[in-house]
Amino acid sequence: CVVDRGGLFLELTRPITSCDFCQSPASVVELEEMTKEDFLRLGYSDRPIVLRGAARRWKAMAVFSFAFFRELYRNVSGSFKNNRDYCQFFKYKTEFKDLEDFLGMPDSRADLTDPEAKTWYVGWSNCDQRVAKVLREYYTRPEFLPQDSEASVIDWIFMGYSGNGATTHVSDQPT
């Protein structure tokens, strides 16, 4: 092909999308439980949905932490290299070069026990199937999703502190 269809090309050719509907929503749907029928009725509307407690039964809620991810990646041989070579790492407003650099930060900064520590927020895609196998032991697919809905083979992990992170944006990241 003459033109690379990634990055800038995608941005220049992306259809104009109105963001008006999410500027000041008239109402927010708040639910404690969601059925497949609820999802089909509400999931594709332009109304925000807050589903409270959807992950309450996931083991991840009690296990996932900075220390968990640090040990997982350190214990899976080659996972940092795989992440550098094949995955994406979003450092946002931090100085971290990559996932290995991020997971190597001192505990005092990771848990903000040092009052002088800078806050942080990062995100990354996990492309290592050995890591994915471990992660998926801790959560399940939401039961309200239709059977024919697509699931990504890539897990995305975002972690950090309030006030940091990504601004509202349109993501063109492959899943």
UniProtKB/TrEMBL annotation:
UniProt name for this protein: Uncharacterized protein
Organism superkingdom: Eukaryota
Organism lineage string: Eukaryota, Metazoa, Ecdysozoa, Arthropoda, Chelicerata
PANTHER family in alphabetical order: ARGININE DEMETHYLASE AND LYSYL-HYDROXYLASE JMJD (PTHR12480), CUPIN-LIKE DOMAIN-CONTAINING PROTEIN (PTHR12480:SF19)
